[in-house]
Amino acid sequence: MAEPHSRSEDGFSSPALHARLATRVVGRHLLHFQSATSTMEMARNLVTKGVPEGTVVIAEGQTGGRGRLGRQWIAPSGGNLYLSVVLYPGPPILPQLVMASSVAVCMAVEETTGLLTNIKWPNDVLVGPKKVAGILIESVREDGDVKYAVVGIGVNVNLDPGQSLAEVPWATSLAHETGRQVSRLALAAILLQNMDYLYDIARSGGSLVDIWRRRLSTLGRHISAQWGDHVQHGVAEDVDGEGNLLLRSSTGELVRLAGGEVTLGHTPGEK
Ligand code: BT5
Hints:
Blueprint: H1 14-20, E1 29-36, H2 39-48, E2 55-62, E3 81-87, H3 97-113, E4 118-120, E5 124-127, E6 130-142, E7 145-155, H4 161-164, H5 174-178, H6 184-203, H7 209-213, E8 222-227, E9 230-239, E10 245-249, E11 254-257, E12 261-264
Parallel strand pairs: 1-2
Antiparallel strand pairs: 2-3, 3-7, 4-5, 5-6, 6-7, 8-9, 8-12, 9-10, 10-11
Bound molecules: biotinyl-5-AMP.
Residues 38-40, 62, 65-69, 71-75, 82-84, 123-124, 131, 134-136, 152-154, 156, 165, 168, 171 line the site of biotinyl-5-AMP.
């Protein structure tokens, strides 16, 4: 098992974070490690030990950080945020987790830095056209029920994109965008607080689709969507209650996309 971490140079620690939270579920149990292969893996192992809902695993760095579809999440040590939240949602809540977490990241970034954010469907948080955070939802279903879900969030806070993310030129960090160091403690506290608030709305039967939709920069744009060997071009018209993307193809057909990769083109009417 990885080494628990006490306090980082920038003052980030789990007791300091805990002291800033007044949440019902998310973050009521925090575990902070120096390094991890992936916080997703750690969280999944903790589920087998019966950890309570809302347990958050944070690592200073990850050697095997992962994205969707087997992709890599570059996660160097120090100055960034890598965390996974263990949740036990019912099946209707599951599609809302990506909404709760991406909106919570946007709110936290905006409140701590003043930067404006937008969401590229389904899971990328962008500042302008550049990716500053990614979200990964993994869940295990059993007999029609959701056994558990793990929400993974990676935010580039203080890393230098020129140095660490040279192979991902469309990525950026909060420090790079603001020109100053950004407090991980403040960012993480607001993020978890907002995630708890939004998760509570979803659990109480509310829908997060409208609040998510307003932040989706993908809507109204010409896009190419790719899943497996399939590629479909069209205009991203809307999202449905489950978070699926509704794509209007050039032949007028409405295609419903549950996942996959979207490449943004221009906005119709723009030159
Ligand atoms: C994501 O996947 O964006 C989800 C990333 C989730 C990372 C968190 S960190 C805590 C937890 N533990 C984990 O192991 N994972 C989660 P996806 O949409 O598939 O995007 C992956 C793509 O983003 C890569 O193929 C690169 O193009 C790009 N990328 C990789 N590292 C990046 C970084 N640090 N910043 C921005 N873009 C990155």
